[in-house]
Amino acid sequence: MIGGMFILSGALSKTSLVSRVRDFMVSHGDKAKLIIFLYMVINVLLIQVSMPTALASMFLPFMASFTGDSKVKASDLIYPGAVVAHCAQGLMPGAMFVLINSILEANNAGVDITAVDYSIVALLYCGIVAPRLLSKRDFVTAADTSSQSGKKASTLAAWQESLIYVAFVVNLLCMLFSDALPFSMNVVPVALDIILLYTKCLDLNDVKNFMNVDTLFMLGGVMCLGTAMQKTGAGTVVGDFIMNLLGKDPSPMLVLFVFYFA
Fold first, then answer.
1. Mean pLDDT of the residues in the chain
2. Counting runs of H as helices and runs of E as strands, what totals does the chain give?
3. Tell me: the pLDDT tens digits for 180-200?
4. Residue 144 pLDDT class (50, 70, 90 cuts)
5. Who has the most CB within 10 Å: 12, 86, 134, 235?
């Protein structure tokens, strides 16, 4: 699914939308702080129906629009946005930070931590404080080739641009209502990519350029490692070690600090 979304996001970067976003950023340079904060809020909302890596891939085309003329840099958004997205996962009513709470429950700590405990702090810190501390530099991403084309007029026909917009919106809607789909969400971006290929909105070179193979292999390896830790009991060992360090009846904030440090 993530590989398909990389390609779909790359297709979006071929449209004139990226250049319009760039022009907007340049013309509203005096509102850079507000733009950064709103970006963080958007991450909080969209992460409820997505996963952090997929969400980052959706925003890659827009990162390409942050040129030297813009007071907002990709470095203001990429890492802080990822932190906020991870912290805000599970904010929907009734959800909780399952991993930490399962460790607490297994050790009879008598403490529950909700997403609100850390997502609000992350939003305020990454949206207001962090941009002042980050180095102001531009990142070179997997969509760098599209960032160069985004500075020029789109070579796509109007109907092709419209088709890409529709595909992007359809993918987002399917993510929102993935539980109601009669098929797996994984096939949606791939199917949309195939449609864009057959309608000449993309070609095979685009697919190779937009597909971030390094990230996909890293994710595959991390998933296998996580499964291995679960099956061998290594995760439980780490959790028990953390709880032994904390002692009985630890405060939620202390638990969070030790967990993230570990």
1. 78
2. 15, 0
3. 889 988 899 999 999 999 999
4. very low
5. 12
Helix %, strand %, coil % of the chain (to 5): 70, 0, 30
H or E element in which residue 92 lies: none
One-letter amino acid at 183 equals F
What pLDDT does residue 166 have?
Answer: 95
Mean pLDDT score, 79-88: 84
Query: 77 with 163: CB under 8 angstroms?
Result: no
Alpha carbons 166 and 113: distance in angstroms, whole number = 39
For 45, counting Cβ atoms within 10 Å of its Cβ (0-12 exposed, 13-18 middle, 19+ buried), the class is: exposed
What CA–CA distance (Å, rounded) separates 203 from 207? Answer: 7
Contact 44, 88 (CB under 8 A): yes
Q: What is the DSSP string of 1-66?
A: -HHHHHHHHHHHHTSTHHHHHHHHHHHTGGGHHHHHHHHHHHHHHHGGGS-HHHHHHHHHHHHTT-
Q: Residue type at 242? A: I
